[in-house]
Amino acid sequence: MKDVIRQLAEAMSAASPDAQFEVRYWDGTGFSIGTEPEFILHFKNERALSRVLSDAFMGFGESYMLGDIEVEGDIKKLFYLGFAIDFAERPMSLMLRIKLAFHFLRARNTIARSRENISFSYDIGNDFYEILLGKGMIYTCAYFTSPDNTLDEAQNNKLELVCRKLCLKPGEHVADLGCGWGGFLMYAAENYGITGVGFTISAEQRDYAIQKIAERGLSDKIEIRLQDAREADGLYDKVASIGMVEHMGNAQIAPVFERIAHILKPQGLAFVHTIGNEIPRPIDPWIDKYIFPGTQASPLTTMVEAAGNNDLYMIDLENIRLHYPPTVKYWLANFDANIDRIREMYDDTFVRSFRLYLEVASSSFSWGDNRLYHLLMTRGLKNDVPMTREHLVLPKSGTSPAGTSSEGGA
């Protein structure tokens, strides 16, 4: 088994000749690539080594969660090298594939199952997400107009960008499918004078959003419903979905876009912010089992086809992939600054698994196949949309470009 690890290390070195790292085993043996290791990969027992070789990243992730693997130094460099040799694409053992097949089947995002999947990820305590996300409570990629932007500034930039892409106007009625803790609708109501309805299937998100909406005096403008987005009702001038579609899986893309078209007024604008890929990719088994059950980053072509099949015409498409790593950098900083408190709230396995997820997420947008798409569509042809993207250029100050303080954002 150690020989296979050595072969993998040599493949990493061949893919990235400047890489320097060390591998250590439980029995005191090991080897080095280069003289100044950027990280040390430590297998603390033979079981961990066996799991990694038989089950690829699933084996690594579960071993790391248990403390059977430690990584000292720059763990992102390890993931960079893993992406360089397509480590995650290595075949898994037959037994694990059988187990995962049953898990994937059970975790499919039917209307009934989706609420369990979302509850697993989001109904774990709003106090944890306040630690992780800060006062904005926005759990999607931010938008950095300057490397000096704070997390709240960058998230306000993103909300402002969405408002501009949707060409929001006072008095318009807006639906937010998968509204999270209500941040977008609160921002849009305060800065653009809209009314809106948010749809979520997380009870804790709904309760938190209702409380914050009341505190900000917006209860007469914003309603939050505990309702699946695929069952959203009403008729709206604009529809937004920010970070929901990646939770649905490929099989649910068509129903989601069908529902968007169903509730959107003719010539209305719809906006989707979602993680995706250029081509179909397999479900990540570790992320699916331990972080986001039922999730799958769908191919861009699948989403564009679903839009077109429902009379939704693409007028703007953007990939903001490079904004994701700096967003996660802030989340990691918040996590690490409160790691002892988080461990007391949950346990060491949660701390290790969630921190691993954040590191993997950042790395997958830097070197892997994850993309972050903005899709802007009209229901039917609409000829009075802006002909350039000039209105989308935001200032670098980090303040709200709508002319109000960034403190008004969620």
TrEMBL record:
DUF7884 domain span: 16-79
Database matches in Gene3D superfamilies: Vaccinia Virus protein VP39 (3.40.50.150)
EC number(s) given by UniProt: 2.1.1.79
A biological process from GO: lipid biosynthetic process
Superkingdom of source: Bacteria
SUPFAM superfamilies: S-adenosyl-L-methionine-dependent methyltransferases (SSF53335)
CDD domains the record matches: AdoMet_MTases
Coiled-coil blocks: none
A GO molecular function held by the record: cyclopropane-fatty-acyl-phospholipid synthase activity
InterPro entries given in the database record: CFA/CMAS (IPR050723), CMAS (IPR003333), DUF7884 (IPR057206), SAM-dependent_MTases_sf (IPR029063)
This protein's UniProt keywords: Lipid metabolism, Methyltransferase, S-adenosyl-L-methionine, Transferase
Family (UniProt): Belongs to the CFA/CMAS family.
Protein name (database record): Cyclopropane-fatty-acyl-phospholipid synthase
Organism: Roseibium aggregatum
